[in-house]
Amino acid sequence: MRRDVDGTFRIGNVEVEIDQDSKMVVQGKSYKATRGLFELLTRKKLDRSFITDSDLRSYTEILEATHGHLENHDPSGVMKTTCGVKFKDVVSKLFPVGGVTRRGSESTLRQKWIPFK
After folding, report:
1. How far from chain centre, in Å, is Cα 74?
2. Is the CA virtual torsion 59, 63, 69, 72 positive or negative?
3. Is residue 116 part of a domain?
4. Which end of the chain is more exposed for a tag (fewer CB within 10 A), N or C?
5. What is the pTM of this model?
6. What is the pLDDT of residues 63-91, one digit of tens each?
7. What does the alpha-carbon distance between residue 31 and residue 17 come to, in Å, rounded to a whole number?
8. Structural domain tally of the chain?
9. Is residue 44 part of a domain?
10. Region of 67 on the Ramachandran plot (φ > 0 left; ψ -120 to 50 alpha; else beta)
11. What is the pLDDT averaged over residues 96-114?
12. Domain around 104
């Protein structure tokens, strides 16, 4: 999740609303804004003691709704992969992908297939 210059929060290209009642709204769906969910959305290195199964389910739904885990937030794109701890310990387990383990030429080649004429 990032904060734009105008103060709005975004995941991918989708605006995230956070209200005073600790609710987070992503594409019309409301989520309880817990410390664990914020840990997943904002940190590179996670403190797992705050993260519950409910937080992981919400995080998965949010990534699916925003395509936040995909290259260029493209619904037909490949999964963004990194060597980071959060990707290795959380994202790769929520969205298992066969074969691609890091960003590089393999993942770049799989992004778009160009038809041969």
Report:
1. 12
2. negative
3. no
4. C
5. 0.75
6. 988 888 888 878 888 888 888 888 888 98
7. 10
8. 1
9. yes
10. left
11. 51
12. 2-111
- How far, in Å, CA of 68 to CA of 1, rounded? 9
Contact 31, 58 (CB under 8 A): yes
Do strands 14-18 and 2-3 pair parallel, antiparallel, or not at all (unpaired)? unpaired
Residue type, 13: N
Residue pair 17/1 in contact (Cβ under 8 Å)? The answer is: no
Beta-carbon contacts of 41 under 8 Å, excluding residues fewer than 6 positions away, are 1, 11, 59, 62
Q: Is residue 104 part of a domain?
A: yes
Residue 74 CB neighbour total at 10 angstroms: 13
Q: Please indicate, yes or no, if residue 14 is contained in any of the structural domains.
A: yes
- Among residues 97, 110, 94, 105, the alpha carbon closest in space to that of 62 is found at 94
Give the tens place of pLDDT for each residue, 8-64: 899 888 999 988 888 999 999 999 999 999 999 999 899 999 999 999 999 999 998
- Which amino acid would we find at residue 84? G
Amino acid identity of residue 32, one-letter, is K
